Amino acid sequence: MPGSRIADLDAAPDENILEVKNLRTTFFTESGGVHAVDNVSFDIRRGEALALVGESGCGKSVTAMSIMRLVSPPGRITAGEVRFRGRNLADLSERDMRKVRGNDIAMVFQEPMTSLNPVFKIGWQVAEAIRIHQDVSKKEAWRMAAEMLKLVSIPDPIKRLHDYPHQLSGGMRQRVMIAMALSCDPELLIADEPTTALDVTIQAQIMELLARLQQKLGLAILLITHDLGVVAEFCERVVVMYTGRVVEEAPVRELFANPSHPYTRGLLKSLPGASKGEAAAASPRTEAEAESSYNPPPGRLPTIKGMVPSISSLPSGCKFNPRCPDVMDICLGREPALMMVGKAHSARCYLHGEEADPERA
């Protein structure tokens, strides 16, 4: 049952449990291959909460699905490594990968109503998830299912085992999904927009639940979201993605106090109540110049102009250059490399040097 790995966590708190190295996931179309995830690298330490953030279409969910080896044709991993406890998951057979899913890495998807089968009782679905990965009887799996519902703070868990998904609220269905994900004691939980379509109060309850379970069970969590407010409260480090690339990575406090990529600054400025001074602090321009970059009409929040480009027709050079208030001539010709701009803080931007990405120079 969950909690058995807490001692191991204390023994090696800084150990990387997951290492994603130069991951590339390609979708093959009639007009050729397009990279939905392109040369992405990051790692997650044991017991850590890491956020993967960006607008819709930036490659966050495809990255998660690639880690789980759940990308369907015409997409597939074409380069790089996904190392979990030293093993490259990209090299495993499908049979071996099925043993990893659930047992070692679990995932909570965006829409619990589409993830739960509407014609089966909650108890049957949680118990079935347990029996797939553990050699236990139906009776024991049912008992464990009740324990899991209790763990995620579902009231009257034994009674709820007999309910169907439509009899539960959205928040309760999401708690059931978390219970299923944790039922086999995974070391890493991938939460893909776990609060989507839930009201603000329920969102806060779900995130509080995840934080409590992380501390209690020693979980490492990869949180995929576009909600920077949730990131500030819940995570320790942030990876910002744009058009399938990592454009910035930093500890949470450092990112909010000193955002170093124009895209990150734009995301932070679009937050209600965000400090304009903090969002502009990393810019080499004056604060007055930075203010004018995302200066909205009175009464409106700042926005980033334009849309995320299609991965099949990306601009040359820096992929953010059509929307960037700081665009320079060098940005149009070559794609910048990720450059260190502070302790454990990197950004893919020519504002911090003229180093080009060697793969794309």
Please give a structural write-up.
The chain has 15 helices and twelve strands. The longest helix is centred in the middle third of the chain and has 18 residues, at 200-217. By secondary structure, the chain is α/β, with parallel strands linked by helices. It has an eight-stranded mixed sheet, sandwiched between helices. A four-stranded antiparallel sheet has the order 2-1-4-5.
Q: What is the strand and helix layout of this fold?
A:
Blueprint: H1 6-11, E1 16-29, E2 32-45, E3 49-53, H2 60-67, E4 75-84, E5 87-88, H3 94-100, E6 105-108, H4 112-115, H5 122-133, H6 138-151, H7 157-160, H8 170-182, E7 188-192, H9 200-217, E8 220-225, H10 228-234, E9 237-242, E10 245-251, H11 252-257, H12 262-269, H13 276-280, H14 287-293, H15 329-333, E11 339-342, E12 345-347
Parallel strand pairs: 3-8, 3-9, 6-7, 7-8
Antiparallel strand pairs: 1-2, 1-4, 4-5, 9-10, 10-12, 11-12
Helix pairs in contact: 5-6, 5-8, 6-8
Which secondary-structure class do the elements indicate?
alpha/beta
Strand coverage percent: 15-25%
Rounded to an integer in angstroms, the radius of gyration calculated over CA atoms is: 21 Å
Strands, count: 12
The pLDDT mean sits at: 87
User: Helical percent range?
Assistant: 25-40%
Work out the helix count. Answer: 15
- Strand ordering within the main sheet: 6-7-8-3-9-10-12-11
The rough form would be described as globular
C-alpha termini separation: 50 Å
Summarize the biggest pleated sheet: 8 strands, mixed
In terms of per-residue confidence, which ranges show pLDDT below 50 for 5 or more consecutive residues? 2-11, 275-292
